[in-house]
Amino acid sequence: MALWRVLATALAAATMLAGSWTAVAAADDPPPTAQTVFGGDRPHPVATSVRTNPCQDSAYGLNQHIVIHLFGNRDDMTCTQAFPYGPDSPAGVNTYYPADIADTGSAPLIVLTGGFESSPGMYDRLARQWVSNGFVVVIAYEWFNSLAYVPAAALAVAMSADRDPASPLYQRIDLSRTIFAGHSAGGQASLQIATLLPPLEKTINPDLHVAGVLAIQPAPLAVGALINVPTLFLTGDNDFIVPDFAWVRWWQYNLTFNAPAWIANARGVSHFSVVDELNNYLSAGTAVAWLRYLAFDDESAKSYFVGPNWQLPTDKTYFSVDRNPLANSID
What we know:
Blueprint (H helix, E strand, L loop, with lengths): L1 H27 L5 H5 L7 E3 L4 E2 L4 H12 L7 E2 L12 E7 L2 H4 L2 E7 L10 H9 L3 E6 L7 H15 L9 E11 L1 H12 L4 H4 L5 E7 L14 E6 L10 H7 L7 E6 L17 H13 L2 H4 L15 E6 L1 H4 L3
Parallel strand pairs: 5-6, 5-7, 7-8, 8-9, 9-10
Antiparallel strand pairs: 1-4, 2-3, 4-6, 10-11
Helix pairs in contact: 6-7
């Protein structure tokens, strides 16, 4: 009996110790990554007239397909028929919106601009994910995609749809929550338009307000000192085209003195990861969190960017995360 008591006591002690260790381990566990929280689709169904096909259906697209796989992409890209990926016009604006927008009221606007030489169809997955979160998304394109007039054209199309009684978006776009987002050359163009537009926004449309910018691996022709709206710079530590240590940090993020700014350098992300499937673009969830924070003041999303215990620095997705003094001062 004495032996059984000793064994029972030892077992009870081991159980308590294991429970205590588990509690400590749980307390020390980092918060979930933005990708696990925000990386999936949300409830809004997507409406669009955009049709995509495998990029390798065209000779030009096949070349791009080979290049992005050499850079480490895992998935095949999708393209539209916009020239040179097909016979359609090389310039235009593609529109995506929540199919239930008539029932849910107005939606914030994202103006998305792709990279140099890209097809707008390459960003179809990203646009659909953002629409599922309750946004209207317009993608401007004209192959170069490098200057402010490209996102400006998409904004004009969105404002026209909002004023058109025949449009399903009539009086359904909340222009006071307009966000510019772009990748590579389109990131550069988004930073440019966000620099130029705010002083003129009320002249253009009394309801228009630029809420912020999402600059994904942006090209160099934009300067942070001219930016006056909240901006998130997303980079990748496998990006040899727009490396984190180059202009995106030194004269874009580091010179953003007049607005809150953040920069996050993702592990294993190359320059073309953004056109992969969303589960293989590891910053997709962070992008959604940023957009939801800007447009909806979503508390869960906000916690990744704001406050003394902001969660992005503990997100294992990132090799490094920084924010400037103005971002530090936000409660």
